[in-house]
Amino acid sequence: MQSNQRRSRIAIVLIALLTVGLAAGGWWSRRAPESHAAAAERPAEAVESPNMTAAQAPATGGPAAELLRARRPNTVPRVSTFTRSYDPPPGRAVDVVAALQPRAEAGDNDAAFYLFVKVEGCRYALYHGGSGSGTRAAPVAGDDLEAQLIARTPPQCHGLTLDQYRNNVRWLEQAADSGIAMAQLSYARNAEAVIGNSSQMLSDPEKVIAYRRKAMHYMQQAAAGGSIEGLMSLGDAYHYGVITRRDPIRAYAYYYAKDLAAPSAYGQKRLQAYADLLNSTQLATATQQGRDIYDACCKP
User: Fold this and answer.
1) What's the pTM?
2) Helix ranges (DSSP H) in 71-204
3) Residue pLDDT, tens place only, 245-259
4) Number of structural domains found in the chain
5) Is 160 helix (H, G, I), strand (E, B) or coil?
6) Measured on CA atoms in the order 29, 86, 174, 100, is the torsion positive or negative?
7) pLDDT digits (tens, 9 = 90+) for 65-123
8) CA distances (Å), origin 104, targets 73, 84, 108, 111, 175
9) How far is CA 118 from CA 87, 98, 113, in A?
């Protein structure tokens, strides 16, 4: 009985993760007004934060200490928001892959991320098609595989092989491992691109567990470097409880730190909504955690 209940809980988590992946585009667009507002309401020049060490973090640990442990070596944190769009390179996907893959293999991490973005657009079309068409089953290898790929994708995607689709996540991970914040947050926001559809998630729960752990690490690393989007992503992660456990105190703390670094009317509304979920003792704890996070990532 307990085993069946455990499997049911795992299934619910996996389906929720799929929802996060499919909603990735909406998540990006929902953040756009906040990011632009933050950029408009602070100086154009990035502000260096002190190089706070783990030894200077609160003795009790907590989210600030986690950020410091996640920070990449020799990183000088700077308050930042995305200034590059990383739009898919124009042209046929096979031509883009031919041009960028040698550069990515040689260690060009920007090329690796552009490569991922280009092929990911085709992967989404392959499995989801046009707007409102719903999720499609994965193509089945066989004599007509190329015909299946052509039938399911727009002309600019024709010529990509199934292996190129399957191996595309390696380029995302290369870019994320190099410290490109947008790649790190793309990994965390698009579970489907990393671990597959709901059936694939259900068939490999260990892979889902590994994904959640790595996604949290990437978000923490982005935030530790001063990324405003990284702070917001962690706040949302703890609020919704999909990538990690739900924790209303930490959700408030990350948005509090974000609003100290980049104040905005939108941020104040979100803070108030999160504050309404806390009692006075919890709010005091969350506020202190938020100050500690700000000191660790963003304080000038």
Assistant:
1) 0.77
2) 93-105, 109-128, 145-152, 162-166, 169-177, 181-189, 191-195, 198-203
3) 999 999 999 999 999
4) 1
5) coil
6) positive
7) 999 998 888 777 678 776 567 888 899 999 999 999 999 999 999 999 999 999 999 99
8) 22, 19, 5, 5, 9
9) 8, 12, 9
